């Protein structure tokens, strides 16, 4: 699982420009599924037909996109002015190493300001010495993301940017590689533009009309000294979401997943997140509405350049989902 | 007479008639007890001791009254403007049910819907200038017919036993004390026991002041409910007392310093008899102990309290075993005198 | 139909947004005698279908209630809360609740007492982090019986006030579902061509998610949304509230004007007192989502005035509620094939 994780963490894929991530995933799943297709927005569908012709269509979604900085202008000294794509935290971005899809690298810097810092105070230093030089290297509308920097932290943990939500991409890849035959049709959706409002999952679920939707995403943590909520701890198992701002999990599906986890002997946590949302929200309200839930990987420092997960929670999620699809 | 019946009676400070009548009737069933009403409306029940003269005169006091509201005016469109009768934090009465007057007209305390509040409104505490009681009247005359100015209002809260021996009710402060005074009188003692069912504690310990002056006791024991904050991850050093840890003995509070000898004697009696008890760790609050202590030439006083969560709210909580513990220590203390 | 009994019973059914199974079962049973088919869909919407050959009309009022959810349990057994929908934290201190754990537990909401607060803090309202539910059990027992994500609902019985008013939890919007019940009952005695779908919708309090999907599935020609509106109380601004004793129809860009006129005319014809209010943009009701379903659905919004919205003492006038049932029944009965003529002219 760690090898797959490293592979899907590597590509640069900000919201709206996820193609390199899709290519990496496609390479992993070629031959493991019945069909692989993409749609007009760039969603990647990897589909395994179920044995049972009357079986359900279960859509599992993990988003490929990563929050980033979009270039809005140049300073005469060669600096880039940027704004955010998705929920960028200013404090955690300062002096961070970022990279553009073209390979151009930069550092995020903030001007000295009194009071609260805003996006307009940030700029990216790409080493250009003039506006002209900067314009040659980076075009308006290009997007930079935190540069790939994946490393192990202790025995079980891994830190990296883009863990939200590439860790779930890796999980879903592993699941599709290992699941074998299932009664129900499984649609693995590697979705786009989640960070800007779950736009990919919305159209994907309209198009595929699944009967059940399960989002795979990261969730926030409650196990550092001053943070208690959400009551989620790394290494205590994957989380089954009860509610966040975008969706309230279908109680029957939620309980079924919890039961599958218990039957598979894996640790699970119940998650109530007072903020945030996942693709489940978009799937739930598609067409006439479907039951949805989210399986979350607990992740510290979400939306920073060092998002930390615990591989044991990834394994727990894999076992739980396998148990659910095999039942 | 049980605690449920007592808490569900309405006796706001200054308007204790309903409870007073019930007590007078009830005390007729107690052999050897002489009952009277004094000038302040206190119900005084005296049980002469079995010991030889001169006997100590021990005054026990628990207050009849509870916190509530009083109608101060009626608006043109039939809403009741109110003031607190006793200390009621306006933050705990929003969206609660009340009964208005002796006829118990149902009413509610509403508030501007969250949708209509500005961010600043949400921060602002609703005070008594904002709060009103709605009984459904649409005109001033209609409301005044049911609730003229000066009508008393009580919380509409039934008595519920829940959890691990806990009780949720209104007026637990100080119906627990009233309940125990009645139970104290079921037993015999060597000393003279003078039980004062006091009026108007919540509006300034007024009833017990008059009673202590008139009754000239040698010793005073106050049976109270006291604030308890043992839940909600409160640092232990800030916890006043604990539910389930038995009756709570005060060395000092806002209105009285316990007589040291009596305080130590009380703890010794508790220990000797193996009674659950603990010492209150805060000096906040005040009660009839202050008015008794300073009556005439001064009286040694000790305060025995039942820890009471969310005191002075429409839904306060005590642990029943602590109520029994207050009774046990009170009886043991009386027998030791 | 004893509508006060329905309101009181409905208030006792569990149904915070997203978990409306119990209240859905209840309303499904209430609708059943008056319609041809009743179903509960994947979002827990109750869809009661009275078949007809005329225009397909969807009426919806939401069943979900605002509530609370367990987000954490302290070692001493204090249960920390999060919101399901817009709960005003000012109503919570000393509020009685039910904790729906492995067992249904009685609880009361406690707060840090004033003597632990600074003078400045005492001038502020309590917020969720200061508050907790006390279920009177030791910490380990609480953790055994209660789990993160369990629901906490208000424990507030119905109270009768003067002038046919009643105060209760969940009047928003189960009072309006009751209007639909009264309309369905009355419609049995009236001629009706319309193909009518009565919908008890879900997840309105978190963004009308149930009405959105129900409208897609039903694909109606036109719709009537019913919700509560703020009734006048002391200190309320006149432009944000309406009179408490009669129904109200909304005027605004999200409302189809000819359909609104039809509703106003119907009220006049049948002597139902109907006031109007203005929403310049979103109405913040199911009408917004239903109106934009698929290719668009001409929609009107009928409101029942209510005092103290999102508290445990939401107060409505039963007389106004009953008039709502009468108005909707006549509106449906008189809906003919020509309803769409000159709709936008």
Written description of the protein model:
The complex is a heterotrimer of chains A (327), B (337) and C (345). Chain A has 327 residues and is an alpha+beta fold. Helices cover 27% and strands 28% of the residues of chain A. Chain A has eight helices and 17 strands. Chain A has helices at residues 2-9, 19-29, 131-137, 163-178, 199-208, 251-263, 279-284, 311-326, and strands at 35-38, 44-48, 57-63, 68-74, 80-85, 97-99, 105-110, 122-125, 143-146, 151-153, 157-160, 185-191, 212-219, 238-243, 268-272, 292-298, 307-310. The longest helix of chain A has 16 residues, at 163-178. Chain A is globular. The two termini of chain A are 23 Å apart. In chain A, 52% of the residues are buried. The mean pLDDT of chain A is 96. Chain B has two domains: 3-66 and 170-335, Aminopeptidase, CATH 3.40.630.10; 68-155, Peptidase M42, domain 2 (Elongation Factor Tu (Ef-tu), domain 3, Beta Barrel), CATH 2.40.30. In chain B, 26% of the residues lie in helices and 26% in strands. Chain C is an alpha+beta fold and 345 residues long. Chain C has two domains: 3-65 and 169-340, 3-Layer(aba) Sandwich (Aminopeptidase); 69-154, Peptidase M42, domain 2 (Elongation Factor Tu (Ef-tu), domain 3, Beta Barrel). Chain C has nine helices and 17 strands. Chain C has helices spanning 3-11, 21-31, 119-122, 139-145, 171-187, 209-218, 257-269, 286-291, 318-333; strands at 37-40, 46-50, 56-62, 67-73, 79-84, 96-100, 104-111, 131-134, 151-154, 159-160, 165-168, 195-201, 222-230, 247-251, 274-278, 299-306, 314-317. Chain C has an eight-stranded mixed β-sheet, with helices on both faces. The longest helix of chain C is centred in the middle third of the chain and has 17 residues, at 171-187. Chain C is globular, with a radius of gyration of 21 Å.
